[in-house]
Design brief:
This protein has 329 residues and is α+β, with helices and mostly antiparallel strands. Helices cover 36% and strands 30% of the residues.
């Protein structure tokens, strides 16, 4: 299952018409339960997204829209709509959406609430209570025209976010790593001196004794090893140069960015060396391994050189959390 997550916010105008249409279609699918929800979307949701007063998400599975959500920002934030299509309802999409909303609500939020049909609350009561929501009785405004009354449910924001991170993040962080437009395939472990120079673009080539050319064009995170023990940058593998050590130094010494003595000590027993050229470097505030381990409730063993994210579920989850912490979703 390939999950694609699109955050829809004040950058509304940058999304193509297909994304905007798909988000609207999934949200208003509940028209039969909420008459006039299409007008509400056009008059309230769309302008609110454009102004940053609301945040939305569209979730696709294998290219097909399977979920959407809208929340209103503020001290008393409201989860206005969460819709998951029937085939995806048991695939954790709802939990992923609530995880995304918990992360996206502003830091000054104090309370989170929603209204829902009483039958829906009863059906998913354990799920809502798992996130800390408490049934507060009949909602002040009844949006539906049927006999099934709407109830209001609310939770303290800090409790809501803490519960979701504790219960859902370790389970679904790995799925967040598979984001189109920001898919991370590799993790490079680099000594802090060189990692920082990669991050500030004064070193654009990293050396390895072996490296597959299949990774050309793929994206990686730079992990600054001990004592930093943190992700500090995202890079793209622009090119992979393979040559004998003398020729590599002659042509690429400035890009390699180390002392000649250190370079030739590293390559002295090699007939060829692999030079990985980076571009599209994006430095960010350190994301410490200890923070990731705390959120995952699991130890992370850094690669000695580099590793593929796809074949390492633990680091795949760590990458997913890094997307959240870097504000990408």
């Amino acid at each position: 299952m390939k999950i694609e997550i699109i955050k829809i916010d004040a950058n509304w105008g940058k999304f193509d018409e297909t994304i905007r249409r798909e988000h609207r279609e999934v949200v208003v699918e509940s028209e039969e339960l909420y008459p006039g929800i299409d007008l509400w979307y056009d008059r309230k949701v769309k302008p609110g997204l454009e102004k940053g007063e609301r945040v939305g998400y569209l979730v696709k599975s294998d290219g097909v829209p399977v979920g959407a959500a809208v929340a209103r920002q503020g001290e008393d934030a409201k989860i206005c709509a969460v819709r998951v299509t029937e085939p995806a309802i048991h695939n954790g999409i709802g939990k992923i959406i609530f995880l995304l909303l918990a992360h996206s609500l502003r830091h000054d939020t104090k309370r989170v609430h929603f209204t829902a049909p009483e039958t829906l609350w009863n059906l998913y009561k354990s799920f809502f209570e798992e996130m800390g929501f408490v049934n507060q009785g009949l909602a002040g405004v009844q949006y539906r025209l049927f006999d099934d009354p709407e109830i209001a449910a609310a939770v303290d924001f800090k409790s809501f976010k803490s519960a979701i991170y504790k219960k859902f993040l370790p389970l679904y962080a790995g799925l967040l790593a598979n984001l189109d437009g920001d898919k991370i395939d590799l993790i490079f472990s680099v000594k802090p001196e060189y990692a920082r120079r990669i991050a500030d673009r004064t070193k654009i080539m990293e050396l390895r004794r072996k490296f597959s050319t299949k990774w050309k064009g793929h994206y990686a995170l730079i992990y600054s090893s001990s004592p930093d023990q943190a992700f500090i940058a995202k890079v793209r593998v622009k090119d992979i140069i393979v040559d004998n050590p003398s020729a590599m130094w002659l042509g690429w010494s400035q890009a390699i960015g180390c002392k000649a003595e250190d370079y030739f000590n590293y390559t002295r027993d090699l007939s060829e060396v692999y030079g990985i050229v980076f571009d599209e470097v994006k430095q960010f505030d350190p994301i410490y391994r200890s923070t990731l381990e705390h959120l995952l409730n699991q130890a992370l063993v850094p690669p000695q050189s580099y590793c593929s994210v796809e074949n390492n579920p633990t680091w795949q989850s760590a990458v997913g959390i890094s997307h959240l912490l870097r504000g990408n979703i």
